[in-house]
Amino acid sequence: MSNYLSDDGTFINSLIGEGSCFKGDISLKGLLRIDGDFKGTISEGGKVLIGKSGRAEAVVTAGTVVVGGVLKGNVTATEKVVILSTGMVIGNIEAPRLLVEDGVILNGSCTIRENSTVAEERPARSAGSFMFSAAKKREMESVSPWTK
Predict the structure, then answer these.
(1) Angle of CA points 66, 106, 39, to nearest 5°
(2) Which residue ranges in the chain fall short of pLDDT 70?
(3) Spatial separation of the C-alpha atoms in residues 15 and 82, rounded to whole Å
(4) Residues 6+ apart with CB under 8 A from 50
(5) pLDDT tens across 7-44, in order?
(6) Phi and psi of 117, rounded to 5°?
(7) Burial classification of residue 32, based on how many CB atoms lie within 10 Å of its CB (0-12 exposed, 13-18 middle, 19 or more buried)
(8) Which of 57, 68, 61 is nearest to 47 (CA)?
(9) I want to staple 87 with a disulfide (CB 3.0 to 4.6 A). Which of 37, 54, 67, 126 is the partner?
């Protein structure tokens, strides 16, 4: 699980251990690891790890979110969201990067948006490179095996 976190010296400064239950709001700057049960909101940047035995019913706003257990709620990340093969997310995800391992359960919508820092460093992309003309779309649909 830690392979998905950058080694920037961040240490686990908050832990909800296996067998523990916490309800409320957490505002963090460091790293929160959830191996027990959590219900509430998580905000203020930081990093959130939901371990294999962790269960969270929460609205999560963080820098990086790694899910190895169960997360029911919406996630907004400024860096990335990682869902491990043991993970389940029931809710919507919004992040600049999304990594999903084989075998996850995901029920919700995903919106991948560049954050302002990344967008400033990249050259602008033209919308034409991502969209087909209406004529090209009709042509593709006429030969597609899924439309028949």
Answers:
(1) 60
(2) 1-11, 115-148
(3) 19
(4) 34, 56, 65, 66, 67, 68, 69, 70, 71, 87
(5) 555 567 889 999 999 999 999 888 999 999 999 999 98
(6) -65, -45
(7) buried
(8) 61
(9) 67
Tokens of 143: 């030969």
* Tokens 């087909």 belong to residue: 132
Q: Which of 87, 80, 81, 30 is nearest to 56 (CA)?
A: 87
Domain extents for the chain?
Answer: 2-123
Largest CA distance in the chain: 59
Closest to 79 in 3D by CA, of 6, 15, 10, 12? 6
Token pair of 38 as six digits: 């959590």
The span from the CA of 83 to the CA of 106, in Å, is 9
Residue tagged 């602008």 (tokens): 124
Using the Cα atoms of residue 42, residue 54, residue 33 and residue 65 in order, give the sign of their dihedral: negative
Q: pTM for this structure?
A: 0.73
